[in-house]
Amino acid sequence: MGIVEKIKEIEEEMARTQKNKATEYHLGLLKAKLARYRAQLLEPASKSGPAGVGFDVQKSGDARVALIGFPSVGKSTLLSKCTHTASETAAYEFTTLTAIPGVIEYQGARIQLLDLPGIVEGASQGRGRGRQVVATAKTADLILIMLDATKSEEQRRLLEIELDAVGIRLNKRKPDVVFKRRTTGGITLNTTVKLTKTDEKTIRTILAGYKLHNCDVMIREDITTDEFIDVLIGTRKYIPCLYVYNKIDAISLELVDKLARTENTVVISCEMDLNLDYLIERIWESLELVKVYTKKRGARPDLSDPGRSSKFSPHAQKVSLNHQLQDEDVVSIFTK
Ligand SMILES: Nc1nc2c(ncn2[C@@H]2O[C@H](COP(=O)(O)OP(=O)(O)OP(=O)(O)O)[C@@H](O)[C@H]2O)c(=O)[nH]1
Ligand SMILES: [K+]
Ligand SMILES: [Mg+2]
């Protein structure tokens, strides 16, 4: 019998079994067995398969938000509540086996919300399908680290470690360092600020370690040694992140209050529909999307539809290509 059949058999037995004190233990065993089989389904088919490749889901809309969390924290429940897409939810772990995209429509924008399988410790090292999940997180414009408010604080740190291991830097800006490789001329190292967390000697040792003997380095921020290494490696992703604590219906008000006051954190209950609108507001803010209206020459802008043609601005101003757009700006592009 294959794993899929075994899973089906257990699910049927669970459905047949009445829930009461006498069957509680047996149901618990079945649940654990089910979780184990489903975890096996998530194992990569062959160990030699391509590493670090995300799920094959097309990006769509104006931004992508990825749901990352341990199994059964309520990721699929959230997707089902906030979008028109239903993703299977259940009380056992590893219910979701692949990436399921849904769309949040807000302020005229279409935000892709990506439900993903739960990950376990060691995901980045290739345990289960976890590696594929963290690789997909790298493609997101915003990561929602979803946590079960009833579980220990430890989960948050463990997830951060997994994302860090694949080069994702959460809620951090790219260090302000200019780095240029050269073919000759040795190392030119300049700093515009005093370095208190690392020093020139360390920086030079690292450059030598990476066999970079000819390059220009200009450090414009008080960086750490690790941040400097990130600059050299160059493939780090700096992605904003919100910590979303779900199941607040099951914890004390004191704890809800404490979590809610934490930075970059939103507390919700998918089941009780608590704070979901606020979460979407925070997602919107974190994405820092700007609505830009375009217009044809001589025509008025259609302000009901960002992203389509519209024109006429009362305070028209010609700006260069590197001008930073503000929210609700109206744009005309002149090509001479
Ligand atoms: N008490 C409580 N339970 C919730 C809440 N949201 C979801 N659940 C329950 O948590 C369980 C897991 O929900 P899922 O949405 O399947 O969780 P998931 O994170 O997608 O799980 P996997 O796909 O297995 O990783 C289900 O039994 C849900 O009914 C909530 O706000 N409060
Ligand atoms: K689940
Ligand atoms: Mg799920």
From TrEMBL:
Keyword Nucleotide-binding attributed: yes
Record Pfam families: MMR_HSR1, MMR_HSR1_Xtn
Residues covered by the OBG-type G domain: 63-288
Keywords assigned by UniProt, alphabetized: GTP-binding, Hydrolase, Nucleotide-binding
Keyword GTP-binding: yes
UniProt cross-references to InterPro entries, sorted A to Z: DRG, G_OBG, GTP-bd, GTP-binding_2, GTP1-OBG_CS, P-loop_NTPase, Small_GTP-bd
PROSITE patterns in the cross-refs: G_OBG, GTP1_OBG
Renumbered residue ranges of the record's region Disordered: 298-319
Positions in coiled-coil regions: none
GO molecular function: GTP binding; GTPase activity
PANTHER family: DEVELOPMENTALLY-REGULATED GTP-BINDING PROTEIN 2
Designated name of the protein: P-loop containing nucleoside triphosphate hydrolase protein
